[in-house]
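Support case: user asked for a sample of complex input and structure output to validate their parser. Sending the pair below.
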Amino acid sequence: MSEPLFELRGVDKSFGAVQVLHGVDFKVYPGQVTALVGDNGAGKSTLVKTMAGIYRADAGEFLFEGKPVHINGPKDSAALGIEVVYQDLALCDNLDIVQNMFLGRETVTGGVLLDELTMEDRARSTLTSLSVRTVKSVRQSVASLSGGQRQTVAIAKAVLWNSRVVLLDEPTAALGVAQTRQVLDLVRRLADQGLGVVLISHNMVDVLEVSDRITALFLGRVAADIKASDTNHSQIVELITAGRSGDIGIPAATAAKSA
Ligand SMILES: Nc1ncnc2c1ncn2[C@@H]1O[C@H](COP(=O)(O)OP(=O)(O)O)[C@@H](O)[C@H]1O
Ligand SMILES: [Mg+2]
């Protein structure tokens, strides 16, 4: 297997007296979907926000393409090409697709005017490159889109910026069956284009179908880091709910101490 594109080693994160992440090792490989699974409160979103520079790790190392890097804020992670699509979509209803995709990073000509045509072209070509065919016009307001289309726009926005790593925090949580299908296909295509994709999801069927590797968090510790093809639904459920399954997972004594 190739080297990790992005790697975390021994990451700790506390909020006040509460330690949420305990020595977390996490690897993201290029061209692969890594699923991050765990019960509510296991620390998945905290881990994603730490990778995105929203939170600062208390301890641990970050490596990008094998080299140590520092992530002290969102600008550091953006400079490395790490983009996040959050659970609660950060899209503005009153703006259209192009405006949303370029929000805060508008293309200017001569330092003043927004270069509308260039932005429109890039928005359209990004959606096309991701084989998104369900959006009629990039000048449609985001309020008029379905949940699946909104997620698609949020993902396209994330890959517009030469991203290398895309972190998706429960992109299908609020979607119906057909729209979930659409988004999962898109998640797979991102990886097929060579990106390192991290997918947080509660749906184990989806996780097993779309991911190459699965990292399970239990009470802020990594319970397992396994190939998707080496595991199954009930084993993942055990890892999520008990931190261990068969001969893999966190030793019960460690898990009990942190509970
Ligand atoms: N900003 C914060 N301040 C204090 N506690 C937090 C904060 N964010 C998350 N937590 C706590 O950290 C734990 C993990 O939360 P989170 O990362 O959101 O879990 P998950 O995404 O796996 O459901 C929870 O106990 C949560 O209450
Ligand atoms: Mg979460």
